[in-house]
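Notebook B, p. 112. Complex prediction, attempt 2.
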Amino acid sequence: MQVPILKQRDYLIASIQAALTDADLLQLRDALVAQVGTFRSRGVIVDVTALDVMDSFAVRTLRDLAHMIRLRGAETVIVGIQPEVAFAMVQLGLILEGVSTALDLEEGLAFLDKKLKAGSRAG
Amino acid sequence: MDDGISLSVTEAVRVQPLSEASVALLRELVAHLRQSRTQLREEWARRITEAQLLTAMSKDEIFAEATAVYDNYVDVLETGSVEALQAYARNLSERIIPRGVQTHEVVGIVLLLRDVLARSLFAKYQADFTKLNRVLDAYEPAANRIANTVGVSFVQERERVIRAQQEAIRELSTPVLPVRERLLILPVIGTVDPLRARQLTEQLLRGIRTNRARVVVMDITGVPAMDATVANHLVLTVEAARLLGATVIVTGLSPELAQTLVNIGVDLSKMDTVGDLQGGIEEAERLLGYKVSPVEESPKQL
């Protein structure tokens, strides 16, 4: 199942609605990394609220995705990780190091707004 | 006798059915005990005071309870059914446990009563040794069974109280308190065992979600010590909170706890720690962009 990617002003929003296969995840990663360049986006939000399981492949792919997007000049926020999922992840040592997280879509947008405003002021 | 509630007690103290002769003897014995009720009861109460048992209770109270126990005791000897005594013992335990009466005291007074009654039997049948022997044969198993029943009832009641208290402590132990919008405080007080640690994690992560918290101050001033497993769990909780988009500030780490955390090799870049709760809240406010300043005093009106 393909994940729809929505463009909202300077941001791209990918909302995962159901469990994804490894191939779907890789496809999502490649699509997002490509579209960041196409739309000159400054932020990417990946919403995983609907996921009640995250395996090591999914976590690694999300982490790679965030790092690749940073190299392409944009910020990534993972939003909506469920409490149970979060604790299971840290128990398995899957901690998304170096990746920003937020409670939900709204918080993620607020985070990006703040971060990019601060960045533009500094630059 | 074997209904569900009393099963465990009666199992422990089941005795052989009594023969005709011992039934007759028991009846005689009960008549004797009823007759000398006043005197024996007083003797017993006196010996309880002498042995310094039930010091938490007044003399009058001891006498009142002694009367009730005495009557129940004789009833058990007569009917052979411990149910009424069991109910009474449970009720008594319920009343005296909060006053700090110990197991050895309860067992002690029942054994004293057994002794007092046995002595009175010795006195009554001292002329006829064979009869005394037969009376004791009938009396002793019943008396032991009573002692057993009372002791077990007391211990069961106490265990029930302990279980209820543990439950209460567990429920009270980890409140998650919102102090400002997006700011939660989680004061942890007392020893944290693995079970409580798990509960703490669950409540914290749920609290973050329901209160939409961005910063959590976890104050562990009141935690005397933690073993490595629990400390590790704490670190995982902090990590998990980050995955939900919240920052956890840990405050009030004691030197011992700091040592534990260093020993298990915590990555300090992942943990935000501040000395005390006040500092933690100030740091949290800074993260959330609050600025607290005193209200300017308005000029006093004359």
